Amino acid sequence: MIAITYLIPLSIVLAVITFAGFLWTVRTDQYADPEGDAARMLEAEDVPLSSQERDNLRG
């Protein structure tokens, strides 16, 4: 029975943190374009990298 006195407040704190995180993502427009990245990934043209771009990736 003593465990419930720890688990209930802990679950409330976790729920508040989760809800605050959700509100933060909504306010910072994280969901503004949910399909955009997926569409860009599927429609992107495969263009080979130039030698300069390859050298930049290698470091």
UniProtKB/TrEMBL annotation:
Q: Which domain of life is it from?
A: Bacteria
One Pfam family named in its UniProt record: FixS
Task: Provide this UniProt record's keywords sorted from A to Z.
Answer: Membrane, Transmembrane, Transmembrane helix
Determine if Transmembrane is one of this entry's keywords. yes
Give the residue spans that cross the bilayer: 6-26
Q: Which InterPro entries match?
A: Cyt_oxidase_maturation_cbb3 (IPR004714)
NCBIfam families from the entry?
ccoS (TIGR00847)
> What name does this protein carry?
Cbb3-type cytochrome oxidase assembly protein CcoS
The uppermost taxa in this organism's lineage are: Bacteria, Pseudomonadati, Pseudomonadota, Alphaproteobacteria, Rhodobacterales
